[in-house]
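Homework help thread (please don't just give me the answer)

Our assignment gives two proteins as sequence + structure token strings and asks us to describe the second one. The first is just a warm-up. Here they are:
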Amino acid sequence: MKVFHSHAALYTDFYQLTMAQGYLLSGHGKADASFDFFYRENPFNGGYVIFAGISDLLEILETLRFEEPEIEYLRQFGFKQEFLEYLRAFRFHGTIHSVREGELVFPLAPIVRVEGNLIEAQIIETLLLNLLNFESLIATKASRIRFAAGNRRVVDFGLRRAQGLGGIHASKAAVIGGVDATSNVYAAFHYGLQTTGTQAHSWVQSFTDELQAFRAFATIYPNNCYLLVDTYNTLRSGVPNAITVAKELEQNGHRLLGIRLDSGDLAYLSKHARAMLDEAGLPYVKIVVSNQLDEYLIRSLLQQEAPIDAFGVGTRLVTAMDSPALDGVYKLGVCGGRPTLKFSDNFTKTTLPGKKRVLRFLNENGTFDSDGIVLEDEQRVESLYHPFFPEQHRSVSRYRHENILIPVMKDGRLVGPLPTPDASAAYARQRLELLPAEYRRFENPHQYKVGISGQLRTMRSQLIEDLQKIHERG
């Protein structure tokens, strides 16, 4: 079910349209093109990214149209009638190869390859970058939070702090990254996510006293009762009143499921609350905490042996507060049958030419060893070369490999059914188990090796040499 119901074709940067018209009027638009989506640096000073967003992109592309109101809107900017007619008939007929949603990806390696005529491949750039960069960023943050929380329950509470409607995709991406549920009802409805939520401080404040508020909630929700215990005084009022209500629920054949702490010293309060609940014969009552949590605070709480059963994470998850953007880019590798690159004096910004695929090499024990960027038609790769220091290379001939770029759309039609967020989350869990621990640690993670084949290295060198000769003649 699409989040965009209409006008998705206008979800773009204006220069995509000016270029598209230029391609058409110059007779350049039918040239075949191949673009690569990749990123250059891991966010959060981490060791990997969880890829997400491709299912949303494909769903939109399958029915992407310029509707009549959009055509009329664009007319005011002086676009030619010939171009407006082109847009009126526009359909995306391209072919897309992508890694699977939930896949672990690493810097420089192409994650998505888009093939089509130059106009259609260009015109979807902004939509692609917006969805894939953002959802992959949030999925990665969620993965780190899940890693810190271990097997404890994690719920996304972030919608109220999200950047506008980005909260919809953030909640979906958070599930792919590893959270169990979301408070975001809209996202849960669209994506089939598990949704949950209980009460806010305003519920407690709306009654004349806290005990009355707790009793009213327990009466209405006897089988799904969590009580927020920090409205007034957590240990003197909130927890004692929760114990009273828990005992009353027991008398009626029900159980209080948990209490939530949303302020104060969460380690201190959770330890004392646990002791009070246990002393009252309520060891089954869970303790949930929230309030500006991230992977580092969760790790700290658990290192302090805080007896916490579940975490509600919000702002720092859905805004990726400490690394607010993934630097994914979309670069042209082939145009009109010829390989091309963007050259930069900063060699790390020089792109890789040609139509490429990505091989993931596996160690003898089946864990990830390295990724190789190779030309599409290469059959055998013996060695990988450092992308920027070609004198550094290593043999991969003894490793088996996977081709992780697979076709997901052909001639504008889906190759197979789109994965659900739960299926993508399960795949991400499987792949994380194959990533050695040194790449998953928070501090100074080991940098995963991504290399290029000898043929790709030669192609790039030749193109750079040709460019330099042209400039010298000029």
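The one we have to describe:
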Amino acid sequence: MFHIQNFKDWSLNEDRFYQKELNPVFWRDNSFDPGVREKLLNIAQDFYSIFKIELPISDIQLTGSLANYNWTPKSDLDVHVLIDFSQIDSNRELVKKAFDGQRFIWNLRHNIVIRGYDVELYLQDINEPHISSGLFSLKNNEWIKVPSYNPPQIDEKDVDLKYEGIINDINSVEVELSKTDIQIDPREVHEHAERVKSKIMKMRKEGLETRGEFSVENLVFKKLRNEGYIQKLIDLISRSYEKIYSE
């Protein structure tokens, strides 16, 4: 039987999700490291150039846990390049979907690590609301939204229950994929894996939108990512797809 690590223990160990200070690797007295800032601005410009868009960049922002107190050693430098999608097409959702594919390929091909932290690039519509409680403009070198130290109250049992349920779903995909019974249809396994992925992403999205970064749903996602289960699911999706067409 899989034994769930007590959430309180997990949140208080070296990978705890809430810290007493901004990450000292990048921050000192609420000021971002100028050398790292320069690198991130250059990377963001290179990233933006792949889209071949002749629109001005409204801002380049650092968001996520490394602009807040909820960082861990496995956090990413989340850099968002902001432009006005409506200047490209009135259907901003369609524009976003088109750009997401290129963004994914760029991040896949560029494994950039600064001081032990992965760099993740995004192209964002300026009209998209941002729910992060910490937001820093790399372009202007100033805080847009200064995070405050306010450790949240966490429903630990609910986090553990949801986490356990999802890893059981992921492990069930692995079990199905390992079966050699010729009656096992790899398409069904692939669809199962995709449903689990959709479930996780929907859960996280709803948690962020309704209760913010410290919602149970988002903390479950972070624990799944930190414990390697998100990557495991991605690998299972890839393996099941290959099995559909392999002979």
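TA reply:
I won't write it for you, but here's a hint about the kind of observation we're looking for: The chain has a mean pLDDT of 86.
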